[in-house]
Amino acid sequence: MKNFILAPDSFKGTMSAQTVCSIWSEAIKKHIPDAKIRKLPLADGGEGMVEAFLGACGGQRKAAMVSGPAGERVDAVYGILPDGTAVVEMAACAGLTLIGKDNDPRKATTYGVGELLLHAANDGAHKIILGLGGSATNDCGIGMAAALGYRFYDRDNKEMEPLAKNMVHIDRIEKPEIMPDIEVLAACDVDNPLYGEHGATYTFGPQKGVKGEMLAELDAGLKKMAKVIDQDLHVRIDDAPGAGAAGGLGGGVLAFLNGTLEPGIDLLLDVVHFEDMLDNTDMVFVGEGRMDWQTAHGKAPVGISRRAKKRGIPCIALNGMAGKGAEAVYDEGICALFSAGQGATDMSEIIKTCEQDMSRLADAVVRMLCL
Fold first, then answer.
1. CA–CA gap between residue 135 and residue 204 (Å, rounded)
2. 103 phi/psi in degrees, rounded to 5
3. SS (H, E, C) 172-212
4. How many CB atoms sit inside 10 A of residue 162's CB?
5. Lowest-confidence region among 35-44, 65-74, 139-148, 222-231
6. Which pLDDT band, with edges at 50, 70 and 90, does 45 fall under?
7. Pick from 11, 37, 42, 43: nearest CA to 24
8. 364-to-70, 247, 269, 314, 371 alpha-carbon distances in Å
9. How far apart are CA 244 and CA 199, in angstroms?
10. Are strands 172-174 and 151-153 parallel, antiparallel or unpaired?
């Protein structure tokens, strides 16, 4: 066994995917000096997606000054791949990491996302991969749409500011005369509907500061937007899987961009021609910070393991820890599951030893493979 693919996701809060790759590679080389190792640090739509694509494919980093979630100006980075495809993270300008303690989810905007898409289009990109992870917003993408030229009006034909708090008052949408010539593929790793008990607001809103009466208010706003979008744009998004991603931006991609929602990991694997990478591969390593029941629903490690399984290539997972339902990944092509955690649950304690813990785990696993 000499040919390995190392394809970890980031271990959020502790280690980057690149760091994990280095730890695993060192363990393999220690015991199998002539091993051939290919590293593929992953991202499935959240923070780090631009770096994952550029690392795997090459290309250029681009910077643009655009609107942040509170309307402030922020420096956002996106990528242009060698074939001209742009890779954009909505989190770069509308992400949770950009909001302060005084964030008002009713006013958080995706306007900067639209500005970033325009920057990429002006760079010559006709195809854009848009990551939807890590959002601070709950506006159904109307901020993004406004940056592209859409206008929103109430029943008295008064133009409404494209903010989440105004969604419930919007009765008419006016399309822009000209739209950029772009094909948008949105990297989406959830299948939540736009509104309702399992929709954007009730599922993801609390982590963005949505609470109390705001929950019902913003959920009603998303429901109203689905109705008006169907009425004026003739696009049904209320029952579309993934429409609730990124505070309803998933639905906004379908409605305002005529885009598509696809698993982020599949977009990356297709771009890097992963099927070709599997040729002559003996084993694949995957992993993430915490593997649990959610992993089996299409997160990055399972996106990898499903493809490896089709080729009869063993895939093992080395994680920070395993949570409830992690055993579900065995049905998805992962043949063995290991955890580096030694019982610590406090993040401040985990951070202190995470690299040493992973190094010990990788060493033990490779020793076992050499038996």
1. 9
2. -55, 135
3. EEECCCCCCCCEEEEECCCCCCCCCCCCHHHHHHHHHCCCC
4. 24
5. 35-44
6. low
7. 37
8. 48, 42, 29, 17, 11
9. 5
10. antiparallel
Identity of the amino acid at 256: F
What the block records as the tokens of 87 is 């890779």
The neighbour count for residue 328, using CB atoms within 10 Å, is: 17
Rounded Cα distance between 184 and 201, Å, is 24
**What per-residue string of b and e applies to 281-304 under the rule 16 or more CB within 10 Å gives b?**
bebbbbbbbbbbebbbebbbbbbb
Q: What is the mean pLDDT of the chain?
A: 92
- Return the pLDDT at 42: 83
Helix (H, G, I), strand (E, B) or coil at 42: coil
Rounded distance between C-alpha atoms, residue 252 and residue 186, angstroms: 10
What's the pLDDT score for residue 300?
87
Which 3 state secondary structure label does DSSP give 115?
Answer: helix
| pLDDT digit string, tens, across residues 309-323 | 999 999 999 999 888
* CA dihedral angle for residue 230, residue 231, residue 234, residue 240, rounded to 10 degrees: 0
- Give residue 43's identity as a one-letter amino acid code: A
- Which ranges of the chain does DSSP label H, i.e. alpha helix? 17-31, 49-57, 91-94, 111-122, 142-147, 200-204, 213-233, 245-256, 264-271, 274-277, 300-310, 347-369
| pLDDT score for 341 | 78
pLDDT in tens, 192-246: 999 999 999 999 999 999 999 999 999 999 999 999 999 999 999 999 999 999 9
Distance CA 115, CA 50 (A): 17
